[in-house]
Amino acid sequence: MACFSFRSSLFLLAAFILPASAAAADGVLYSDVTLIDGTGGPAREHQDILVEGERIVAVGARGGLDERASGARRVDLAGRFVIPGLIDSHVHLATPPNRARAEAILRRQLYGGVTAVRDMADDLRAVGDLSRAALVGEIPAPDIYYAALMAGPPFFEDPRVLAVSRGFTPGTAPWMQSIDKGTDLRTAVTLARGTSASAIKIYADLPAERVRAITAEAHRQHVMIWAHSSVFPARPSDVIAAGADVISHVCYLGYEAQPANLAAYEDRTPVRENLLAPAGDDPVVARLYRAMLKQGTILDATGNLFVKFEAERKAHPEKKPLRCSGAQTIRLTQQAWRAGIPISTGTDYVDPAGDAWPEVHEELRYLARDVGMPALAVIRSATLVGAEAAGQAKDMGSVEAGKLANFVVLTADPLVDIGNIETIEMTVKRGREYRRADYVPVTEKELGDDD
User: Fold this and answer.
1) Is 247 exposed, middle or buried (0-12, 13-18, 19+ CB in 10 A)?
2) Same domain, 16 and 103
3) How does residue 449 score in pLDDT terms, banded at 50, 70 and 90?
4) Which pLDDT does position 26 carry in this prediction?
5) Are 428 and 351 part of one and the same domain?
6) pLDDT at residue number 16
7) Which domain does 245 fall in, by range?
8) Residue 442 domain-assigned (yes or no)
9) Do 238 and 317 have their domain in common?
10) Which residues of 105-128 are buried (b: 16+ CB within 10 A; e: fewer)?
11) Whole-model pTM over 0.85
């Protein structure tokens, strides 16, 4: 009994230390907004959003919900714009685990409008606890959906593996498994499921046959597959044909144009861009996109990563090049957009904790300014497509009755300039309000390390 009381006290303390505005309220009417609902439909002026507890219970024209909301707290948002909560579909929160840094990054994301993230393989002992704390409101953070990783034996010499699986022989942790022809995939997928992972990430050093087998078994056990678009030696066409639900890194699709793929992930030879069309649609990649459309595959492009790195490399030419140039990455993303491929907004890099805004804002700018996507489509990518990539579209990704109350209140129109994503007045996540004015970045000195 004493132990139970102590735990109960900790949970009560956690509730008290959250900002007062973050306490979930039953019955709140957010009134008179211009709503961009995330479905891709046009903005609707003078809309009311009725929230009860964690969920949106109704959306309608101004004044139309007054009778139903007679006892609700009213928040007048005339002149404001509401979009669904943003989703970063490619983050890494625990390689290696660092709780203070992860909480700082997650807090920045939430106060920057991000209400969910897709963690793409880390130490799931740490990520699982962060996910639980975010879910129940112990820490200000987006909801976290995460993957257990599978790769071929050569990958497990990577030093990152040791950093995320201490206590296990590399390749044997349930969230970081080495796969070969002798692996019992039914058991391997079951072990991955036991980590509460939403998906299995197929990462590297696997032939096409193993990619197909892992995917088939994961889907049989109702687990999503999030994969690198090229698994080496498996080609992009192999990964797509296997039925991966989401593929990451548009850049890697360029390897399909080569006579033979690289034999191993550890070979960092860049894409031979001279084999791809210098402008317009590349015919080899066009075949990949047709196959993706047929399969319903989502593209986690991570485009700004390559553009950002190329800009940094101009200042530091000693840095080794990434697998693609920024210009080629832009062209491949443009082709994906023209082909009708659903594109999510993943980042795959982490800025210093003291930066004011989350990294995903730059991916939105990349899609709008570099790729040329309309702002309405960019917002859909960052919300509903991201929810689909995480397997959570039933509950999030758009502002609709029945879904979680995850949305962002802006003071300027993001359809006029996607940069207006940074005019945040507040983020609402699972019905809790997080006002931007309350956000103070954490400095590196406060984190107490030099990572």
Assistant:
1) buried
2) no
3) low
4) 64
5) no
6) 39
7) 86-389
8) no
9) yes
10) bbbbbbbbbbbbbbbbbbbbbbbb
11) yes
